[in-house]
Amino acid sequence: MISAAKPSGNDTGPIRLGMVGGGQGAFIGAVHRIAARLDGHFQLVAGALSSDPERARESGAELGLDSDRCYESFQQMAVAEAARNDGIEAVSIVTPNHMHYPAARAFLGAGIHVICDKPLTSTLADANDLAALVEKSGKLFILTHNYTGYPMVRQAREMVAQGMLGTIRLVHAEYPQDWLTEAEEASGNKQAEWRTDPAQSGAGGCVGDIGTHAWNLASFVSGLETDSLAADLDSFVEGRRLDDNVHVMLRFKAQGEERPAKGMLWASQVAPGNENCLKLRIYGSKGGLEWEQEHPNELWYTPFGQAKQKLTRGGAGAMPAASRVTRIPAGHPEGYLEGFANIYGEAAAAIRARRGNNSSLPEDIIFPTVQDGVKGIRFIDACVKSSSDNAGWVKL
């Protein structure tokens, strides 16, 4: 994670944004566009919205883009936009996983900031290479692990950092869904097709799609680094080429002289009755925290030996880390789209700081970086290796 300075008054105009992927029928592209415009920070002005040229043009026209800025390829878009005086300042990459690396490489090479959906890439080699390219380019790279943008997740992170839970002992994360309980990829569902295709998704199926979200959230809130893991990956649906269920045991790195914390992670896309049940539980020597994505405005805090307390977004006890990413008064729900928008808001602050030639990005604005993405790919890689070795322990 990185922190960014808040922008000066001369750097507050809308940021010119391009998009790769996210054309007609693409779910996540629409989510990114809503998030980018929710607070007025970005203006979408260009796109290479599909690998099919006709669909790319039609998608751009539907979004009101000028015809000369509806590109047939991201390579063409990167070159053309870099040459314009009014070219894009940042690009949002919302393609299947295997296209993240080549698209990001093209725009970093053109001197354009990158906002990219997770996971970072489809292979560890590409992830490491991309991290080196980001360092060389000097450009910002924002990875949209959107759950890190939820106010009560920020609250939980701050409470852990302030020692309110004492020494962390246990970290439990889970993310069950049920939408792939049957062979949805054989029915023409585009989202299921690429997510279950190793050539597009990478070596991990469920573990890469939602397992990384659970692991990233656990790491973000607890502040702990994973030392090693033992993973058991399964493909329960006959003929499915990638995992649709994963169980992982986690060992975290030691905190000083204390015993290392232990953890468990379960992610599944074949658990009937579950929609998007991302949950996190953290327990320390002084208390515990519980948070559920389907009830994102609530955080349960239990000091040891005392009654459980429900903390709410915008309510009594809200800390600055949560309040600064809260838009509306308590009792009015904020959720998935606002969490995404908070990541885009953090990205905007960092980009505006760079407009003012501010090379350092200090203070309290936080977003996932390319290094967080590399760690996520290492997690996927370690899970796959562990499972292939009968759930043996693997160092990260």
Secondary structure elements and their pairing?
Elements lengths: L1 E3 L10 E6 L6 H12 L3 E7 L4 H10 L11 H10 L6 E4 L6 H10 L3 E4 L7 H14 L3 E3 L7 H11 L6 E9 L13 H6 L2 H4 L4 H17 L3 E9 L10 E8 L9 E7 L10 E6 L2 E6 L5 E6 L5 E4 L7 H4 L12 H20 L9 E3 L2 H19 L5 E2 L1
Parallel strand pairs: 2-3, 2-4, 4-5, 5-6, 7-10
Antiparallel strand pairs: 1-15, 7-11, 8-9, 8-16, 9-10, 11-12, 12-13, 13-14
Helix pairs in contact: 1-11, 3-4, 4-5, 5-12, 6-9, 9-12
Task: Describe the structure concisely.
The protein has 396 residues and is an alpha/beta fold. The protein has twelve helices and 16 strands.
Describe what you observe in this structure.
- This protein has 396 residues and is α/β, with parallel strands linked by helices.
- It folds into two domains: 2-147 and 340-363, 3-Layer(aba) Sandwich (Rossmann fold), CATH 3.40.50.720; 153-330 and 376-395, Dihydrodipicolinate Reductase, domain 2 (2-Layer Sandwich), CATH 3.30.360.
- The chain is built from twelve helices and 16 strands.
- The protein has helices at 27-38, 53-62, 74-83, 100-109, 124-137, 151-161, 190-195, 198-201, 206-222, 320-323, 336-355, 370-388, and strands spanning 2-4, 15-20, 42-48, 90-93, 113-116, 141-143, 168-176, 226-234, 245-252, 262-268, 279-284, 287-292, 298-303, 309-312, 365-367, 394-395.
- Strands 14-13-12-11-7-10-9-8-16 form a nine-stranded mixed beta sheet.
